[in-house]
UniProtKB/TrEMBL annotation:
SUPFAM superfamilies: Metallo-dependent phosphatases, Purple acid phosphatase, N-terminal domain
InterPro entries given in the database record: Calcineurin-like_PHP, Metallo-depent_PP-like, PAPs-like, PAPs_N, Purple_acid_Pase-like_N
Residues of the signal peptide: 1-28
Pfam families listed in its UniProt record: Metallophos, Pur_ac_phosph_N
GO molecular function: acid phosphatase activity; metal ion binding
Keywords of this entry: Signal
Name recorded for this polypeptide: PhoD-like phosphatase
Domain Purple acid phosphatase N-terminal: from-to ranges: 37-129
Stretches assigned to the Calcineurin-like phosphoesterase domain: 174-321
Lineage summary: Bacteria, Pseudomonadati, Planctomycetota, Planctomycetia, Pirellulales
Length: 405
């Protein structure tokens, strides 16, 4: 299974290892001081054609927090929306969150944003809403960015460079428009000092022209505790499973493997997949604990979610947690079946890697397994979905193609 890679893009990836030694973006590593906005991020957990959550942190509580925004390169006047603010919970570490949910945005539009806390302002950034037209595009997927901070920062820098290079040619299919994270951001999800470091390191995904790559977050087993919802702008008590359409033909369903996979979540998943399958060319799921793992034992979703994935012909499932690389054979009814579901993963955004158990039938050829820091690039075309696993340094370790159902 192969795909054609534009030559310019291939060269960019090939030499990414050399680029990693360059100086970080001017937008990275903002100091936490007073009410100066830092740790900026854009979150997609609702309709990304019209909605985005802008989040940032300050060291001091401050009094007035807002986001100034407007369509980029337009004559529109600036609009301002107030932020929901408060202190992050989690130990004695003092840090304050600010979230502004922008709504009624125009699809496929670049928006300039500036975060304001009291008299302090962030640099001017921008992000781009998802298109409402049936266009081709790419996203990134990965998981497990805890434990090794140096490796995490290198991978984040690679993500920024890959995303920026993806816009260098005229092929819209190459354009990387979002980053889906499969969970395990930090070692202990109750410790805000760890989240603070992760959020600061996430600034490295900012592109040199100030473009922010929206993140689509899933909760991992190390992310237990209240901070997760405040980091990503979910309401208190949110169960952290949701579906978003990234354009009219690509649906990504994010599940939570850290609560019951049965009951309400399974009922919701059945309804979500039934509703989405009929209207989308590509249907994906992401979550943390793998159901066809290359190292660990299968998660509870094997019994509760897999029958639904197969019933509704999910095109691709993205997993994490194992700290390795894997792509399964197509699976249906517990065996290789070309009509089945393919599972990829299992987390390499900086975490130390494990050795996969290659004797497991579902990762033997034409599947694969390996280890190494990596991120997946998923490209959604009208005739095929292409995927590739890119190692730190730019080497393409695996490629695959899925055909529309």
């Amino acid at each position: 299974m192969t795909m054609t890679i534009p030559f310019h893009y291939f060269l960019t990836l090939l030499f990414a290892g050399a680029l990693l030694t360059s100086q970080p973006s001017a937008f990275a590593d903002a100091p936490l001081a007073g009410t100066a906005p830092a740790q900026w991020r854009v979150v997609w957990s609702d309709d990304p054609t019209t909605t985005a959550t802008i989040a940032w942190s300050t060291k001091s509580a401050g009094r007035d927090h807002s986001v100034r925004f407007k369509a980029k390169d337009s004559d529109d006047g600036d609009a301002t929306t107030l932020a929901e603010s408060g202190r992050y919970t989690g130990g004695s570490f003092e840090l304050y969150y600010h979230h502004s949910k922008l709504t009624d945005l125009r699809p496929g539009t670049a928006y300039e944003i500036q975060m304001i806390s009291d008299t302090e302002s962030s640099p001017v950034f921008y992000f781009v809403t998802a298109s409402d037209t049936d266009r081709e595009f790419s996203i990134l997927h990965g998981g497990d960015s805890r434990s090794d901070r140096d490796a995490r920062r290198r991978v984040n820098t690679m993500i920024s460079e890959m995303a920026e290079a993806s816009f260098d040619n005229d092929d819209p299919a190459d354009d990387i428009i979002a980053f889906a994270h499969g969970g395990d951001y930090v070692v202990s999800g109750t410790k805000m000092e760890l989240w603070s470091v992760w959020m600061s390191d996430h600034e490295l995904t900012t592109m040199t022209d100030g473009r922010l790559l929206p993140i689509i977050p899933a909760r991992g087993n190390h992310d237990k505790g209240k901070p997760f919802n405040k980091v990503f702008g979910f309401p208190d008590g949110d169960l952290n499973y949701y579906g978003i359409s990234i354009g009219p033909k690509v649906r990504m369903v994010t599940l939570n493997s850290e609560i019951s996979t049965a009951g309400d979540q399974a009922t919701w998943l059945n309804e979500e997949l039934s509703r989405s399958r009929a209207n989308h060319r590509w249907l994906l799921a992401q979550y943390h604990r793998p159901v066809y793992p290359a190292v660990k034992e299968a998660g509870a979703g094997l019994k509760t979610w897999v029958p639904l994935f197969e019933k509704f012909d999910v095109d691709l499932v993205c997993e994490a947690d194992g700290h390795n690389i894997k792509r399964t054979v197509p699976i249906r009814d517990g065996q290789l079946d070309q009509t089945g579901v393919v599972y990829i993963g299992e987390g390499g955004l900086g975490v130390p890697q494990r050795t996969p158990k290659t004797d497991r039938w579902f990762i033997q050829s034409p599947g694969m397994a390996d280890q190494g820091h990596h991120v997946f690039v998923l490209t959604f075309g009208k005739d095929a979905m292409h995927g590739k696993c890119v190692l730190e340094g730019g080497k393409i370790r695996d490629e695959f193609t899925r055909q529309p159902r």
